[in-house]
Q: What sequence folds into this?
């Protein structure tokens, strides 16, 4: 007859098992001469560093646009900024959601995928109240939205999705379309229950309150976008990407360049030069009715006339200097 071990015998047996000192807190240990790291299949780290960086930039741009849009729409100061990017299983995400909730499902038709905007109910009540002309009252108890409130939010979500599309356009041809509103997280269907999803959390500051605007994608959708995302950062032969152009333009806007108006020239002898005194007049080759040259970085770029504007010398541009004319100055 087999004997069953007592609890004391089990504890003693466990304590007698030697522990590998090479194990570390990050669950890396040594087997033979190789280092092995445990892999959590329930919480896989699917995103590469580059893909994660691109996603963070896209949603940072979207966050700024969203804050400005809500400020103009609701006529009150609203600021938003991203606070977290996480990966988890869909079932865990659904279990973390409150009920009732405000979930807005959108479909990316050209990539055959779905995503969801999760907006904290407190923030939704504030948006609806401001849209209807109220001061932005907050409800003490959370409830499901009425039919009128759902219609108001549906229209707003469609406008927000257009901002969302614009934020993605420099990276991928992302075409999100609003599909439906869902208040019960258990009815949310954007992927299979065991699939990984990527969530991005935005913090929304309105008045003295703080709300959350979360975005969730199935990883399978992100996986379809990753090749496009990586390609958007690759330099193209003979063509600058739109992302690079935006970066160049942003830096050029704060750049200063010297601008000079050339009144004319005169040729004098060295003897005349050393005998110049106060009050002497030099005759320039230019006539008073001729156009003057405007130089940028010492290169002639425009023709125009000199004059006065509000007690200041001014220059009025008449025509650009053509490329053929530039050659004689080189």
A:
């Amino acid at each position: 007859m087999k004997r069953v071990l007592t609890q004391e015998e089990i504890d003693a047996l466990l304590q007698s098992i030697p522990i590998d000192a090479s194990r570390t807190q990050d669950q890396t240990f040594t087997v033979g001469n190789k280092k092995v790291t445990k892999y959590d299949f329930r919480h896989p780290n699917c995103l590469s560093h580059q893909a994660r960086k691109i996603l963070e930039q896209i949603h940072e741009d979207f966050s700024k646009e969203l804050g400005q849009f809500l400020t103009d729409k609701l006529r009150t100061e609203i600021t938003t900024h991203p606070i977290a990017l996480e990966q988890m299983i869909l079932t865990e995400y659904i279990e973390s959601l409150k009920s009732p909730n405000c979930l807005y499902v959108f479909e990316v038709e050209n990539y055959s995928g779905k995503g969801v905007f999760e907006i904290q109910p407190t923030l939704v009540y504030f948006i609806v109240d401001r849209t209807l002309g109220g001061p932005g009252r907050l409800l003490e108890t959370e409830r499901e939205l009425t039919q009128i409130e759902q219609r108001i939010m549906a229209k707003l979500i469609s406008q927000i999705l257009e901002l969302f599309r614009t934020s993605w356009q420099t990276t991928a041809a992302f075409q999100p379309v609003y599909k439906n509103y869902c208040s019960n997280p258990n009815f949310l269907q954007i992927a299979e229950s065991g699939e990984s999803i990527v969530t991005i959390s935005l913090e929304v500051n309105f008045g003295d309150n703080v709300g959350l605007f979360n975005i969730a994608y199935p990883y399978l959708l992100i996986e379809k976008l990753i090749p496009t995302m990586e390609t958007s950062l690759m330099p193209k032969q003979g063509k600058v990407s739109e992302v690079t152009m935006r970066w160049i333009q942003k830096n050029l806007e704060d750049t200063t360049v010297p601008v000079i108006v050339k009144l004319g020239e005169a040729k004098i002898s060295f003897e005349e030069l050393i005998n110049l005194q106060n009050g002497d007049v030099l005759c320039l080759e230019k006539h008073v009715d001729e156009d003057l040259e405007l130089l940028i970085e010492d290169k002639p770029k425009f023709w125009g006339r000199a004059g006065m504007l509000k007690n200041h010398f001014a220059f009025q541009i008449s025509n650009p200097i053509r490329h053929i004319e530039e050659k004689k100055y080189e």
Q: What stands out?
A: DSSP finds nine helices and twelve strands in the chain. Residues 49-74 form the longest helix (26 residues). Residues 7-37 form one domain.
